[in-house]
Design a protein that fits this description.
This protein is an all-alpha fold. The chain has helices at about 5, 20-25, 35-45, 60-75, 85-95, 105-110, 120-145, 150-170, 190. The chain has a domain at about 70-75 and about 105-180. α2 (about 20-25) packs antiparallel against α3 (about 35-45), α4 packs antiparallel against α7 (about 120-145) and α7 packs antiparallel against α8. It is globular, with a radius of gyration of 20 Å.
């Protein structure tokens, strides 16, 4: 679910300044940044909620598709029986804290994906997904310079970035298999065998 849809309000409208958000987006790869630093930077940029009635728009559909890609990259591992590394687990939990309350996923949406925390085979597709995230946030900010948002002005550009990003991610993932962390794949012949009935 898109963050604005969950909140039922516009979250990227112009406050006093957008600079903290823009600067943080570039510099947030610093591993020493705390959750409080991230929250302060994004909070300063987003400002108070809007009084304009909220309306769903196509940017929210694109954001939803982005979350699906981010989930695939962060949930799965690339080898059978392998668990997530500590860094991979942390990145997954930051993106998907298990709650939609208090706009819990808005802060991750505004920060760089930690591609180095992912399995090596996932990193190329993750770079494409990160580019999509950056463009999505930039488009939200540009669209909400005045409300209601003028998303039509920016939609073609964002759609082109998403189409290119999906193509790059698909190409980079061509020979990559996905496995649930810590689970071994059942052999096909085991799956086809009927279960034995217990004697009655």
């Amino acid at each position: 679910m898109a963050c604005e849809v969950e909140a039922q309000q516009y979250l990227f409208k112009p406050p006093a300044s957008r600079e903290p958000f823009k600067n943080y987006e570039v510099e947030s790869s610093n591993e020493e940044d705390s959750d409080e630093d991230i929250e302060d930077a994004v909070g300063d940029a987003l400002g108070p909620p809007s009084d304009i009635p909220f309306t769903f728009n196509p940017l929210h559909d694109l954001e939803s598709s982005w979350w699906i890609q981010a989930w695939i990259l962060h949930f799965y591992v690339d080898r059978e029986g392998r668990g997530r590394s500590a860094a991979h687990t942390m990145a997954y939990e930051q993106l998907f804290p298990g709650s939609l309350l208090n706009q819990a996923r808005l802060i991750p949406l505004g920060t760089l994906l930690k591609t180095n925390a992912l399995p090596k085979r996932f990193r190329k597709p993750a770079h494409a997904v990160e580019q999509m995230r950056r463009e999505l946030v930039t488009t939200y900010i540009a669209s909400e310079q005045s409300l209601p948002p003028k998303f039509q002005t920016h939609l073609d550009g964002l759609t082109a970035v998403f189409a290119e990003g999906l193509d790059k991610a698909a190409t980079a993932s061509k020979n990559v298999k996905l496995f649930e962390p810590g689970r071994r794949k059942l052999e096909e012949d085991e799956e086809e065998q009927p279960k034995k009935r217990s004697k009655t």
